[in-house]
Specification:
The structure is a homodimer of 587-residue chains.
Chain A (H helix, E strand, L loop, with lengths): L6 E4 L7 H10 L4 E4 L1 H5 L5 H10 L3 E8 L7 H21 L3 E5 L10 H17 L3 E5 L10 H11 L4 E6 H5 L16 E6 L9 H7 L11 H10 L6 E3 L11 H18 L13 E8 L10 E6 L4 E6 L2 E6 L6 E8 L3 H10 L4 E2 L11 E4 L5 E5 L8 E3 L9 E10 L5 H12 L2 E2 L3 E5 L2 E9 L3 E7 L14 E7 L2 H10 L9 H10 L4 H10 L2 E4 L3 E7 L7 E10 L9 H14 L1
Parallel strand pairs in A: 1-2, 1-8, 2-3, 3-4, 4-5, 5-6, 6-7, 7-8, 9-12, 13-16, 18-22, 23-26
Antiparallel strand pairs in A: 9-13, 10-11, 10-17, 11-12, 14-15, 15-16, 18-23, 19-21, 20-21, 21-22, 24-25, 25-26
Helix pairs in contact in A: 1-10, 3-4, 4-5, 5-6, 10-12, 14-15
Chain lengths: 587, 587
């Protein structure tokens, strides 16, 4: 029997007024919230009315955290703290919340004395118990004297009061690389609360890291699955609650952020075997990529090999690369991706459980039923079985000789500023793709953050690090499809002959390439002559070139991977971006 | 005789393509640039053409930095490095740049051997000298073995080559709190280059701090004046060159950023006594604040005491508070501030030298000539002598009893996302106001960063930490005028009686105030009854209340300062913001 854990989210994760936050949490399917003090203080409703509002939305209030710097203080400070606590207990009674969080002290008043801390927490717990409340004590990673969970637990154990337990927060534990296995030694009933947050590993002050850069589970670098398994193995059965301080989420649409948050917990439950859902699909490749509008695929050596039976869609192919061109919709962008999976129905079921927005599709008589979902950036993602869908296209019999393109290497999707982390989690959880390392680079109009996600298919996601302002060009975020070939230099030559509009790379780039590598002069000359870019890693090489923009925001790349090169030539992206910008400006 | 120092800016400071950057630097009046390798590589023009373009714009290329991890390496790496250097020397000859920067190595190949470093730098300098070039060696704060400027200088001295000197970068020195006084021991002719950057003091990894958070001099926490004085005392007479890596500047309009940058160097030169410009004005107070459109000042106890002789402007007064209401322009915002200064002509001359955009004004016959400049957020700033300008208003004879307002305490101007640091520097350099500490707080729609600037008058500047997206409310950035009073509770009572629309503060706020302070219950009750907010610091107390929005983006605050309280009640800003938002939504 799988434990059916409740889910909660701290109001501090979301943007807006308290009512915006509560409505968003409820709409996303959370069972409860952690109420942040500032959200309460700024609300016109009294605590009892807030309790009613939550109940009306189907939400419980699972935690409240109005107390700071409580324990191990001199008697006069203790008296003040107790007085404040009693005030807050009054509020808790009205709110109907049972558990109050007490974080380890960061105060200059604090004394390094575990016995004193235990004694004062015991006193607080006694007062709480009189009102049917309980105290969850948590070690902040930057606590003055108590900054590890095992230390907090020692103090709780020493205090020995039934209304006193610990709160475990994954950020405070994993940011310090504390071993979560010792959690199993804590009796489950003494773990009063569990706060979950992921984060990228960043070389910075832990307090700033915590306050600005937390992420929902699955979006960062922490192993939340192992962490949470330890907590469940200890016997904890309380809510899985998100406490994520993030500068971007804090100003994003709370309804959208709440769905992203809930998906993170569903994916975590799945990784723990607690969710009744089909396993992540194992993609076998791109069935197709679909373009809206009509870029010139003929000049890239593609043949128009099929026409859809009922829709204004053409099929263009070359080698194993298949591109659909849809005459309907906003022209000049990538409208859809077809991902080949062994069991589309199971993949669709998984997508539904993980809150991927379904797209309704109409299939004509005899046409393959296709399941489609919307990715965070609006791209339609089709889950296809093998090549069934090809039957929907009437063959034209057309067949051009081709230019050496053999398939689709990856698709590059530029993400809206707010959705970078959401997109990572979407592809990871819904489609089972694994994110690579995040890289940042300086593009002509500001910093860009990017990462690949892969597993059967490769995607790259990137976003401006700072939301674009008025100065940025009107087309800040082109998308592209990267095709594979076996010889980039000859493919570029063939495409140039057939009239493809390829991006010209400055001579300065090749002068530098000659200076910084040991490539033979004739190799550099061949790359220079065809504007082919070059990268290498410890496993191999990457040769690639680009077309000019072929629509409102689409272009193409052709890549040749040599050896085990696993990247995407990101080092060359600024040169490509500048070239695209110059070409646009020149037109 | 003041040394006439040239000014330069690194292309990496600015957004856009190389040509955007060069044009912006030239337009702002810089004499030269540091050319960044990536800007060169991405440009279609060869080095000789770039040299011509710079010459055409009146710019020299003062520094080029294509070499990394050069020194103290094994022989095979040295051979590769020298080969690369020779390639780059070819480029330098075409660019017409004489000085190349070599930063201390961060490579795992590097060896901790100063003799070897000196020997290899000597070899590089010999090669450079053969071409009439020279090497500036700089200690990166995160250099593997060489990370202090005195260490770099020891190696340069040991190498003993005339074409080898040091480059000093204020960030690398001041970020580590290295004492800049030892710079005076370096012979001026061995300081080949000076790079200037300010920064806020941030508790983070120095490399990330350097790459993302540098600021132009005068915008951060470093003492660039003392630093630069040491360099000049050593005898350096080369350019003052800005090398500022900043995520926001990198995506901002480069023309505007370049002016901000140039202003920072002019202000630095002024602080060193190197600029022939009148001293910063010593403001004596607000002459007036001007509103566009007509909020209801009568309900705040103001009297319409004058009408302008030639313009559709009314003068409203109460105590020493004077507010102009201008019927022309975009209604509902603060259009102008009148700052009283002893010598407006001198202040105007200073503003001009410091590149403050002048505003043309027409004065009717017999009217006081008023000098006005545009602040970064577009607010007009008038520089007024005493009360001369009052003569432009025909007295009405009207006089209401008033509600206890006695003057203007401060004006709060919300800054556009990109202009927060520019605004700080503008008010600091042009008007001589001193910035206070920067504070960040969580507002309902995202984090806000704010700081006060003061000196005779007080201003607060704040900006969203992340540029606002679609979710943020349509009026995200109201401005306000804060009036002084001597008794906030009775003033609030009087204004409520006279029909002023004051913001209602939630009862939860007062429950918390009672819990966390020792204020007498009757005091809390009095504040609660009038929706007066409360703050205290170690010097005194602050009582304040707000009106609802009185125009498109304007409201008013009334404050009572008790004792030496020096803040602005920032702790209460989120409650105020939520209340304003609820009131707007409710209407």
């Amino acid at each position: 029997m799988l434990p059916d854990l409740r889910t909660a989210i701290a109001t501090v994760c979301l943007s807006g007024t308290l009512d915006d936050k509560l409505a968003a949490a409820a709409a996303a399917g959370f069972d409860g919230v952690e109420l942040f003090e500032n959200d309460l203080l700024a609300d016109r409703r009294g605590p009892a009315e807030i309790r009613e509002r939550c109940a009306g939305l189907g939400l419980t209030i699972d935690l409240y955290q109005p107390l700071r710097d409580f324990e191990a203080v001199p008697p006069d400070v203790l008296a003040r703290n107790l007085r404040r606590a009693e005030h807050k207990f009054d509020v808790m009674a009205e709110l109907g919340v049972q558990t109050v969080l007490v974080c380890s002290s960061v105060s200059p008043d604090a004394i390094n004395d575990d016995d004193l801390a235990a004694e004062q927490l015991h006193l607080l717990a006694s007062r709480a118990a009189e009102r049917g409340l309980r105290i969850a004590y948590e070690a902040l990673a930057w606590g003055r004297f108590v900054n590890g969970y095992e230390h907090a637990w020692r103090i709780v154990r020493r205090a020995g009061h039934p209304a006193l337990g610990v709160c475990l927060d994954s950020f405070h534990i994993l940011s310090k690389e504390d071993d979560p296995r010792a959690i199993r030694a804590i009796p489950g009933e003494k773990i009063f609360f569990l706060q979950l947050a992921d984060a990228p590993v960043l070389p910075m002050d832990v307090l700033q890291w915590s306050r600005h850069h937390r992420l929902f589970p699955g979006q960062g670098d922490f192993d939340l699955t192992t962490f949470t398994r330890n907590v469940l193995d200890a016997g904890y059965r309380g809510p899985l609650s998100l406490e994520v301080f993030n500068d971007v989420f804090r100003q994003a649409d709370p309804y959208r952020a709440a769905v992203d948050a809930r998906r993170s917990l569903l994916a975590l439950q799945d990784s723990l075997g607690l969710l009744d859902v089909p396993a992540a699909p194992r993609a076998t490749g791109y069935a197709f990529a679909e373009l809206v509008g009509g870029p010139d695929l003929a000049s890239l050596g593609f043949s128009r090999t099929g026409v859809h039976r009922s829709k204004p869609v053409e099929l263009w192919t070359q080698g194993d690369a298949r591109v659909l061109v849809n005459a309907e919709g906003e022209p000049g962008e990538i409208g859809a991706l077809g991902i080949a999976v062994p069991d589309p129905a199971a993949a669709a079921q998984r997508a539904k459980v993980l809150l991927a927005p379904p797209l309704s599709r109409t299939a004509g008589p005899g046409e393959a039923p296709l399941t489609a979902i919307a990715a965070p950036d609006g791209t339609h993602v089709f889950l296809c079985a093998d090549d069934d869908w090809l039957g929907d296209f009437v063959p034209t019999g057309e067949s051009a000789p081709g230019a050496g393109i053999t398939g689709i290497d990856h698709v590059a999707l530029t993400q809206p500023f707010d959705n970078f982390d959401e997109a990572t989690l979407f592809y990871r959880s819904v489609l089972g793709l694994e994110p690579g390392a995040t890289a940042e680079f300086a593009a002509p109009f500001g910093l860009v953050r990017g990462r690949g996600v892969s597993g059967g298919v490769r995607l790259t996601l990137d976003a401006a690090l700072v939301r674009r302002g008025g100065w940025a060009p009107a087309v800040p975020s082109p998308q592209h499809i990267a095709f594979t070939c076996t010889d980039a230099v000859s493919c570029a030559e063939a495409l140039r002959q057939s009239g493809a509009r390829l991006v010209e790379i400055p001579g300065n780039y090749y002068d530098d390439l000659a200076a910084r590598t040991d490539l033979p002069a004739e190799r550099v000359a061949a790359l220079r002559a065809r504007s082919v870019l070059y990268d290498r890693d410890e496993h191999g090489e990457y040769l690639h070139f680009y077309t000019e923009l072929a629509g409102a925001r689409v272009f193409f790349e052709v890549v040749q991977r040599i050896g085990g090169y696993s990247g995407f030539g990101v080092v060359n992206a600024p040169v490509r971006m500048a070239a695209h910008h110059e070409a646009r400006r020149g037109r």
